[in-house]
Amino acid sequence: MTTDQVGDVLTALADPTRRLLLDVLADAGLASATTLAARLPVSRQAVVKHLRVLETAGLVGGVRAGREVRYSVRPDPLDATARWLAERSATWDRRLAALKRAAET
């Protein structure tokens, strides 16, 4: 995963409404924008806009079913972002441990 892709995921997750939308969608499994809007404190139009951002980041995908699109969570970008964050965390842990050793000698 590139840093741009990580940035897209983190940008998408920066908005609390999108995080809530992702949680609701994860619980629902598969849902239309209308169904999601009924479970959220925002309009259907707002849900559609948020879904577009999540879809651009690869966090959700939509499948057309008749006249509506049913969305589901795609976990791969979240997993890749978590790995990227874990790698950064491990790097900083090593650097801080080296700094501590240097300070103690």
- State the total count of DSSP E strands: 3
CATH class: Mainly Alpha
Question: Looking across the biggest beta sheet, what order are the strands in?
Answer: 1-3-2
- How many separate domains? 1
- What is the helix tally? 5
CATH topology: Arc Repressor Mutant, subunit A
Please compute the radius of gyration using only Cα atoms.
Answer: 18 Å
Coarse morphology: elongated
| Helix content percent band | 55-70%
What is the fourth-level CATH superfamily? Answer: Winged helix-like DNA-binding domain superfamily/Winged helix DNA-binding domain
- Indicate the low-confidence ranges by residue numbers: none
String of helices and strands: HHEHHEEH
Distance between the termini: 39 Å
- Largest sheet geometry: 3 strands, antiparallel
CATH architecture: Orthogonal Bundle
Report strand %. 5-15%
**What structural class do helix, strand and pairing data support?**
alpha+beta
User: What is the residue-averaged pLDDT?
Assistant: 94
Q: Could you explain how this protein is built, in words?
A:
This protein has 105 residues and is of the alpha+beta class. The chain has a single domain, classed as Arc Repressor Mutant, subunit A. It contains five helices and three strands. It has a three-stranded antiparallel sheet with strand order 1-3-2. The longest helix has 29 residues. The radius of gyration is 18 Å and the shape is elongated. It starts with a helix and ends with a helix. The model has no long low-confidence stretch (mean pLDDT 94).
